[in-house]
Amino acid sequence: MAVPSAAVSFMTANYVARELGYGAADEWGPFDAATNAAFQPIGTFPERFDALLAEIAGAGFDAIDLWFGHLNWRWSTDDHVAAARESLDRRNLRVASLAGSIGSTTAEVEAACRLANALGVDLIAGPAGIVRTDRAEVTAVLGAYGVRFGLENHPERTPSEVLEAIGDADALGAAVDTGWWATQGYDPVAAIHELSDRLLHVHLKDVEEPGTHVTCMHGEGCAKIFDCVDALLSLGYSGPVSIEHHSFDRDPTAECARALVLIREQLSTTRAGHRA
């Protein structure tokens, strides 16, 4: 069955700019550090995390991709995990994947996998140089914990570079970021088709123009978002799909809610056409 609407999730990294204030900067690093610093203290974590989920659920989502900035394997404790699970249950939100870097050592990969297990999640997606340098060791750790890892394209310029990095290991696959393919000047639709046999996740992200990585409302940029969804439908893809729009200059919630409606309408209309 093709991409059920319930599989359309909200990438919590969409809120990367929130802690410093929208428009404060346009570099990922300071925003990332500020988010981790805000969410790490256990005394305030339950309230902060629940407020985050309340806004996402209020925008119409029933699933999230939980970015490590909001719950990080580097600093999470049993108390963080318990508070997160309680809030997820109360808000009736499912975690489709964990999102972000799994580190640069096998010990760090193991810590990320332990967090995934604690949350009942079997998929992590993000960039990871260690997949290239220590693929056998990473694969062994993933297998031991029953976790899959989707390599998210960032510096890769062609799908063949992703396929070379992940090899043929069952625990490794591709997490397509449509925005990054567009940034690199590579057709995201073609990338989806070329990686179709290894797809574990798809991050639907639009960007204003090739060569830059300024995200925008779906359909207003160059990433051919709706053609990408058509490609997924044509392939019979049934894995998770994320709405991603990490704007630095404004709160992306309303635009993500609009994108969710558009994607769900596209999925519903296409399924109806297939049934007719």
Task: Report on the architecture of this protein.
The protein is an alpha/beta fold and 276 residues long. 45% of the residues lie in helices and 16% in strands. It is built from eleven helices and ten strands. It has helices at residues 28-39, 45-58, 78-91, 106-119, 130-133, 135-145, 159-166, 178-183, 188-194, 225-235, 253-275; strands spanning 8-11, 63-67, 94-99, 123-126, 148-152, 172-177, 199-204, 206-207, 215-216, 241-243. The chain has an eight-stranded parallel barrel, surrounded by five helices. Helix 2 packs parallel to helix 3, helix 4 packs parallel to helix 6 (135-145) and helix 10 runs parallel beside helix 11. The protein is globular, with a radius of gyration of 18 Å. The two termini are 16 Å apart. Residues 1-6 and 272-276 have low confidence and may be disordered.
SSE arrangement:
Layout: E1 8-11, H1 28-39, H2 45-58, E2 63-67, H3 78-91, E3 94-99, H4 106-119, E4 123-126, H5 130-133, H6 135-145, E5 148-152, H7 159-166, E6 172-177, H8 178-183, H9 188-194, E7 199-204, E8 206-207, E9 215-216, H10 225-235, E10 241-243, H11 253-275
Parallel strand pairs: 1-2, 1-10, 2-3, 3-4, 4-5, 5-6, 6-7, 7-10
Antiparallel strand pairs: 8-9
* Mean pLDDT score: 94
Class computed from helices, strands and strand pairing: alpha/beta
Number of helices: 11
Reading side by side through the largest sheet, how are the strands ordered?
A: 1-2-3-4-5-6-7-10
User: What's the β-strand tally?
Assistant: 10
The ordered H/E elements are: EHHEHEHEHHEHEHHEEEHEH
Largest beta-sheet characterization: 8 strands, parallel, barrel
The residue ranges in which pLDDT falls below 50 over 5 or more consecutive positions are 1-6, 272-276
Tell me the strand percentage band.
15-25%
